[in-house]
C-alpha cells in the first residue's frame, strides 16, 4: 500500500513539503483554505496590474528557495543582482552599498569608506563590531536571550551606525529593529549574508507577480507530481486508529502522516494539544510583526534603479514594480485608472510597521509622498496617478530575544506528525528561505517515519527508494 501524506497549508513550506513527499513516492494531498497557493506571497488584480501583497526579495545565499524555484521551473522568472548594489539616500546625502570582487568582509570595504552617514571613527567601530559579530556563537542558547541592540551598543555602535547600516539590513531581513531582535537571529543573518561569502547578499526579486511565481507554478508542479490539491479549510488534525484523520468542513480524510504547514495560531487550533512541547501561551508569546507596502503610480519615471534604500526617512526601501506588475508603459485603456505612457509603479516596503499598520490611507499619503519627493527629486514634478496601501498584520513572527525556545522543530511528540512553516525552528528568520527549509525538514521527518511503508513505483528513479505502484485515495465521510 502506498502511504498517504496530508499536507495542511499551501504556502511555500507546504508546497515544498508536498513536492518532497510526492517525489519520494507517497500519495499526497495538499489542503489549502484559500482559492490560491503561495500563502503570504500572493498577488491580486487592480485594473491592468497584478499587485503583490508586499515586495519580496531574497539573497543569493537563499539556496533552498532557489532550489524550489528550479523545481517549479521558475528560475528565469527572477532577477539576481550579479553584484550587491544598493543605492541609499536620505537627509540630503547619497551613498551606495556596492560590493567589490574581494573576499568577505573586504568586499564591502570601499562602500564603507565612502558611506556618508558614518564618521571615520564610526567606520572603524563598525568594522570592529562586524568582526566580533562574525565570532558570535549562534548555537549557544544564551545568544538568543540577548538583544541585538544591547549587543551593538556594547560594541560601540551609536545611533547613526544602527540607523544607517545595521537596521537598514536588519529591518528588511528580520522585520524588527535591532532593539527588538534576538542576537542569535541577527548574527545568523549578518554572518550568512554579509560576513562569510562575498556574493551571499546579492539581492534577487521576481520579475513576475508572486501569484504566478509561486502559486500558479506551485500548483502546476504539484499536479504534475501527482499531488491532489484540495481547496478546503482544515478544521482538525487528529490521531486515528491507524495513522491520522484530517477534517475539513466537508469531509474527513485518512492519512498515514501529516505535515502541518500553517501559521502558529492555526497550528495551535488544528493540532492535538500534546503535539508541541511549548508553554500554553506560546502563540501569543511568539507574536507577529506587520509589514505595510505603500504603492504609488507616477505618470512618469521618477526612479532609475530597480531599488533604493532610505536613511532617516519613513521610506525604508522602495522598489520599481513597473515590469513585475504588468504595468504597460504605453497607453492602457483597460485599466481602472488611466495610466499614461511611461508611467512608473513604485512600492515602498515598510517593515516592523507597528506604527503604520493602522494609519488611514490619507495620512500615509501625507507622510509618504513628500518623503518620496525628498528621496527622488523627479517625483516632485510628477503626477500621482494611483496611491494605495497593502497591510499584512501577521507578516512574520517577532524575532525577539527568547523567541528561539518558542519555535518548535519539525519533529513533534506524535509519530507521523511534522511541523513546517517559516516560524518553526529553522535557525532563519521568517523568510521564504526559512519556509522552504522548514518544508524540507518536515518532509524528511515524515519520509523517515514512513520508511516502513513502500512508496509507489517510479519513485525509485527520483529518490532511490523502491516500491510498487498502488494508490489509495479513500475519503471517509
Ligand atoms: C508583506 C510581506 C513581505 C515579505 N517580504 C519578504 C521578503 O522580502 N523576503 C522573504 O524571504 N520573506 C518575506 N516575507 C516572509 C515570507 O513571505 C514568509 O516567511 C513565507 O512566505 C511563509 O511561508 P509559509 O509557508 O511558512 O507560511 P504561509 O505563507 O503563511 O502559508 C500558510 C498557508 O496555510 C494556509 N492555511 C492556514 N490555515 C489553514 C487551514 N486551517 N486549512 C488549510 N490551509 C490553511 C494559509 O491560507 C496559507 O496559504 C514577507 C511577508 C510578507 C507578508
Give a topology summary.
Elements (H helix, E strand, L loop, with lengths): L3 E5 L3 H12 L3 E5 L11 E4 L2 E4 L4 E3 L3 H9 L6 E3 L4 E6 L2 E6 L10 H5 L6 H15 L13 H7 L4 H16 L8 H14 L6 E4 L3 H15 L3 E3 L3 E7 L2 E6 L3 E4 L1 E4 L3 H7 L11 H5 L1 E11 L8 E4 L6 E4 L23 E7 L10 H15 L8 E14 L19 E3 L12 H18 L9 H5 L11 E2 L1
Parallel strand pairs: 1-2, 1-14, 2-10, 7-16, 14-20
Antiparallel strand pairs: 3-4, 5-9, 6-9, 7-8, 11-12, 12-13, 13-21, 15-18, 15-19, 16-17, 17-18
Helix pairs in contact: 1-8, 1-12, 2-12, 4-7
The protein binds flavin-adenine dinucleotide (FAD).
Flavin-adenine dinucleotide binds next to helix 1, strand 5, helix 9, strand 19 and helix 12.
**Main β-sheet, in a few words?**
7 strands, mixed
**Mean pLDDT over the full residue set:** 92
> How many strand segments?
21
Shape: globular
**Rg calc:** 23 Å
CATH class of the largest domain: Alpha Beta
Look at the structure and name the CATH superfamily of the largest domain.
FAD/NAD(P)-binding domain
CATH topology of the largest domain, which one? FAD/NAD(P)-binding domain
Low-confidence stretches: 459-477
Protein name: 15-cis-phytoene desaturase
GO molecular function: oxidoreductase activity
Enzyme class: oxidoreductase
Pfam families: Amino_oxidase (PF01593)
Amino acid at each position: 500500500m502506498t502511504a498517504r501524506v496530508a499536507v495542511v497549508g499551501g504556502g511555500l513550506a507546504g508546497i515544498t513539503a508536498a513536492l518532497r513527499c510526492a517525489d519520494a513516492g507517497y500519495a499526497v494531498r495538499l489542503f489549502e483554505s484559500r482559492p490560491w497557493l503561495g500563502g503570504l506571497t500572493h498577488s491580486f488584480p487592480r485594473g491592468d496590474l497584478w499587485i503583490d501583497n508586499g515586495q519580496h526579495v531574497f539573497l543569493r545565499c537563499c539556496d533552498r528557495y532557489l532550489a524550489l524555484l528550479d523545481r517549479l521551473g521558475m528560475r528565469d522568472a527572477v532577477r539576481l543582482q550579479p553584484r550587491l548594489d544598493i543605492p541609499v539616500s536620505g537627509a540630503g546625502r547619497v551613498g551606495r552599498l556596492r560590493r567589490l570582487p574581494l573576499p568577505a568582509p573586504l568586499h564591502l570595504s570601499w562602500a564603507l569608506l565612502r558611506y556618508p552617514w558614518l564618521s571615520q571613527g564610526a567606520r572603524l567601530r563598525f568594522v570592529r563590531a562586524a568582526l566580533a559579530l562574525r565570532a558570535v556563537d549562534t548555537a549557544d542558547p544564551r545568544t538568543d536571550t540577548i538583544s541585538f541592540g544591547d549587543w551593538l551598543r556594547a560594541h560601540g555602535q551609536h545611533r547613526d551606525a544602527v540607523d544607517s547600516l545595521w537596521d537598514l539590513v536588519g529591518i528588511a531581513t528580520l522585520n524588527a529593529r535591532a532593539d527588538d531582535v534576538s542576537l542569535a537571529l541577527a548574527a545568523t543573518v549578518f554572518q550568512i549574508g554579509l560576513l562569510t561569502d562575498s556574493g551571499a547578499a546579492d539581492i534577487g526579486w521576481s520579475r513576475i507577480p508572486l501569484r504566478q511565481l509561486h502559486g500558479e507554478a506551485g500548483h502546476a508542479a504539484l499536479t504534475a507530481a501527482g499531488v491532489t490539491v484540495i481547496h478546503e479549510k482544515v478544521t482538525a488534525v487528529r490521531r486515528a486508529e491507524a495513522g491520522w484523520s484530517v477534517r475539513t468542513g466537508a469531509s474527513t480524510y485518512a492519512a498515514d502522516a501529516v505535515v502541518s504547514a500553517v501559521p502558529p495560531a492555526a497550528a495551535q487550533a488544528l493540532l492535538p494539544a500534546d503535539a508541541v512541547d511549548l508553554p500554553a501561551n506560546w502563540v501569543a508569546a511568539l507574536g507577529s510583526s506587520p509589514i505595510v507596502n505603500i504603492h504609488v503610480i507616477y505618470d512618469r519615471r521618477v526612479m532609475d534603479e530597480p531599488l533604493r534604500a532610505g536613511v532617516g526617512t519613513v521610506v525604508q526601501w522602495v522598489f520599481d514594480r513597473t515590469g513585475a506588475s504588468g504595468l504597460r508603459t504605453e497607453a492602457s485603456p483597460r485599466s481602472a485608472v488611466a495610466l499614461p505612457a511611461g508611467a512608473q509603479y513604485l512600492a515602498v516596503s515598510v517593515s516592523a510597521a507597528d506604527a503604520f499598520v493602522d494609519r488611514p490611507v490619507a495620512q500615509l499619503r501625507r507622510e509618504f509622498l513628500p518623503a518620496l519627493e525628498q528621496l527622488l527629486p523627479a517625483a516632485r514634478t510628477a503626477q500621482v496617478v494611483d496611491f494605495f496601501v497593502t497591510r499584512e498584520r501577521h507578516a512574520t513572527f517577532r524575532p525577539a530575544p527568547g523567541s528561539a525556545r518558542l519555535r518548535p522543530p519539525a519533529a513533534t511528540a506524535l509519530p507521523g506528525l511534522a511541523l513546517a512553516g517559516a516560524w518553526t525552528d529553522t535557525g532563519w528568520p521568517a523568510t521564504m528561505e526559512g519556509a522552504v527549509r522548514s518544508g524540507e525538514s518536515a518532509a524528511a521527518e515524515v519520509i523517515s517515519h514512513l520508511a516502513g511503508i513502500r512508496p509507489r513505483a517510479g519513485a525509485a528513479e527520483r529518490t532511490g527508494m523502491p516500491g510498487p505502484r498502488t494508490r489509495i485515495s479513500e475519503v471517509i465521510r
